[in-house]
Amino acid sequence: MVLTDPPYGVEYQGKTKNALTIENDGIDGLQPLLESTLGKLVEHSAPGCVWYVCAPAGPQFAAFAAVLGDAGVWRQTLVWVKDSMVLGRSDHHYRHEAILYGWTPGGVHHAPPTRSRTTVLEFPRPKRSAVHPTMKPVALFADLLSVSSDAGDLVLDPFCGSGTTIIACEQLQRAAAARSSWTRGTAT
Questions:
Q1: Whether the Cβ atoms of residue 136 and residue 142 lie closer than 8 Å to each other
Q2: pTM, 2 dp
Q3: Which member of 8, 98, 160, 185 lies 3.0 to 4.6 Å from 56 by CB, making a disulfide possible if both were Cys?
Q4: How far apart, in whole angstroms, are the C-alpha atoms of residue 30 and residue 10?
């Protein structure tokens, strides 16, 4: 399984006193970054491998859709609805994020155990992002893991940032393989 939250290409800067930033978070390098990581993971993942990839709204969404769509992975867009809006540079402030869901073509995937799930995932966002500027809630990732993997399964996260995937895997007895080039407190 792949569960990840790549940079969004928005040159994000955190609101904490450290003004945390994310490496490779510019629009110009976004598609090549996604192709070199997610594209390679598709090539090396087993048929039926389930994918959840957090993605931005706005124009940068196209880069995510292109990489996962061209690879045949993207099947649905889920929406994480937060308990409060996030102040940003947009005219309308976001209270949601997209999560691209699908699986590597050519095999049977680990589908959710019931047909009662919807595309809307409602989880409160972390109130403080002191560890990483765009932290995701562990409960959100644990929910996705619980319906698309079993205890002992391997979960890959090439953009682990604050370690949300690793923590959720530990809670649910999944094996995590993760990496991140983000360094806390360093500007890019």
A1: no
A2: 0.85
A3: 8
A4: 9
